[in-house]
Write a structure and sequence with these properties.
Blueprint lengths: L2 H10 L3 H13 L8 H45 L3
Length: about 80
């Protein structure tokens, strides 16, 4: 595990503010190699925000697909009931 993963988990948690502070404390007690704590923190924050946006877009996309599927099934049923 690296500092980036610790910050990513902290930012994605329900209590992000508290957990980011705890991540700071945890990382202060360790020696991180080749990646500054500040860089890891910012990277985790940015990826967390991007994942949040992606999941929202995915959810909206799937809602649209479900709506179109529902609408097409109504049109098919209505089409079957129309006189020839």
């Amino acid at each position: 595990m690296n500092a980036f993963e610790i910050y990513l988990g902290a930012f994605r948690s329900r209590e992000a503010t508290k957990n980011v502070r705890e991540a700071d404390g945890t990382l202060d007690s360790m020696k991180a190699l080749h990646l500054a704590k500040e860089s890891s923190g910012k990277s985790g924050e940015i990826l967390s925000e991007l994942l949040h946006i992606f999941y929202k877009l995915y959810k909206d996309f799937m809602s649209s697909i479900y709506f179109l599927t529902f609408l097409s099934s109504i049109l098919i049923v209505a089409g079957d009931r129309m006189p020839s």
